[in-house]
Amino acid sequence: MRVFKLMLKNALRHKLRSFLTILGIAIAVLAFGLLRTVVTAWYSGVEASAANRLITRNAVSFIFPLPYAYRDQIAKVPGVEQITYANWFGGVYIDKNQFFARLAVDAKTIFDVYPEFIVPKDQFEAFQRERNACVIGSDIATRYNLKLGDLMQLEGDIYPGKWAFVVRGIYRPRDKTTDATQMFFHWTYVDEQMKQEMLGRGGDVGWYVIRIKNPDDAARISNDIDALFKNSRAETKTESERQFQQGFISSASVIITSLNVMSFVIIGIIMLILGNTMIMSARERTLEYAVLKTLGFSSGHLVGLIGGESLLISFLGGGFGLLFTYPFVAAFQAFVPKGWFPVFYVEFVTVVLAGLSALLVGVVASIFPIQRARRTTIVEGLRFIG
Amino acid sequence: MAALITVQNVSKSYWRDSFKIPVLKNITLEVPEGEFLGLMGPSGSGKTTLLNLVAGIDKPDTGAVVIDSTDIAKLGESALAKWRSRHIGFIFQFYNLLPVLTAFENIELPLLLTPLSKKGRREHVETALNVVGLADRMHHYPKQLSGGQEQRVAIARAIVTDPTLLVADEPTGDLDKNSADEILTLLERLNKEYKKTIVMVTHDPRAAERAHTVRQLDKGELT
Description:
The complex is a heterodimer of chains A (386) and B (223).
Chain A: H1 3-11, H2 15-42, H3 44-47, E1 53-58, E2 66-67, H4 70-75, E3 80-88, E4 92-93, E5 101-105, H5 110-113, E6 117-118, H6 121-129, E7 133-137, H7 138-143, E8 151-156, E9 161-173, E10 182-186, H8 187-197, E11 204-205, E12 207-212, H9 218-228, E13 236-240, H10 241-250, H11 253-284, H12 286-295, H13 299-335, H14 348-375, H15 378-383
Parallel strand pairs in A: 5-10, 7-9
Antiparallel strand pairs in A: 1-12, 1-13, 2-11, 3-5, 3-12, 4-8, 6-9, 7-10, 8-9
Helix pairs in contact in A: 1-13, 2-11, 2-13, 2-14, 11-13, 11-14, 13-14
Chain B: E1 3-16, E2 19-32, E3 36-40, H1 47-55, E4 62-67, E5 70-71, H2 77-87, E6 88-91, H3 103-108, H4 118-132, H5 147-159, E7 165-169, H6 177-192, E8 197-201, H7 205-210, E9 213-218, E10 221-222
Parallel strand pairs in B: 3-8, 3-9, 6-7, 7-8
Antiparallel strand pairs in B: 1-2, 1-4, 4-5, 9-10
């Protein structure tokens, strides 16, 4: 028999109480993991931003377009390496609940500026050749069981009409944070259609994406670009891709902050749950600790015994919580409407944070009972009536 | 025979709220090695306090408690804990076995503080169980044992490290007559056959009869 066995037996002395405590911790860790994952998903666009990419949009609002004619002027700004552009197409695929980004892009340059979208060479060439070709993310292909050559019919809203695209490429994400739920097709195809069918709607792009040579020049280049169009009918606002993405989520910052705070409040709740259990257990065992001291066990032994029990319970709860976090996050993703969170996975840092939290909870919850056990003299302990 | 225990001019008081209650008043006592001493006296006379001082689980306000040449009143908490594990076997009135451990594991507890191997510990525990006649109950939990059997397990726990001194606080106080007789006979055996020095606090005159010497305490003074 070792002291560990005594610790284990103590932890399982009140099976129902221990089970409920472990369950409480597991649920709290699971909730912590889910909330952190949601926050991470919210920030995924920001995290995936490249330091060497700038976005130029209409200074009034993102929803107002910019003239296509700006492209060549921007390309000439010193420090600009490559420029591409895109338009938010919107539209409906199958039904309105099927949400994913559909973008009319410059087919020639889009994948140069976004190297994290990996398209096989033959598929890229096929995409270039055909005006109504499209490239879709691998997640979209999986979700709708689409293969190369399949037709995707979109019902236009911003760009009215029925739009048919042939899948000629399926890109796979280079990184875990890369969004694999987008659809790209030729801007020229959409623009030509619009020019023919709706007078005055052609020749505009939604935003420009600029790859720069040196990220340190970002501020200067941004200023230079915006200066070009000062006092024009469509003034521009140029910012880093990270700032651009942050602008998107700024409106939800209160919610995100709340989620962040809640995730840490949950850690506090776990501490209270386990602390309460440990205090009750230590109080009930006051006499036993006095007996152990009488037998020659030191305060250090009691620290190990109580702290170990607390850590054991918190690790069991934390372990089960983490174990169930993965299937729960997957179920959550399946439950929320498709496309809400294009990048949704449990980050390693979330696992580390949950593990450290479990460790912290185990340590903190044992402080009070350890202090009590240390301070109670043997004589007081032997007289204790629980 | 040389004194194993020397209690010299020991006083001890407790505080109850703002009242100082003297429990032991200038006690001096010598107990030779191999003695079986009974301490008797009315409730509140200071018997258990004196026993606690001798066992090193409490400290006097003044005076010295010398056990086998060590003034234990001067030892720090950690040193005193080590000293207790080597020199004291404590037998409680209510046995105080750990309910989650079997008889074997309860007896093994003090041995966890020694460098003995698992095999060595097992041998010691089995020897102690044979001495108290409970070898067949080693895997039983305290709740599966009678009061007398629990006390015998507690005695086995007290003797398993072969301590210098056995201290017993009302060891028969919670037992029926037959069980009490068995326990007292066992203590007598430990004293006679194994030469254990025993200090026993008791209210029971029949228990005191088994001791070689009986000292009376009254209002904190030896009479």
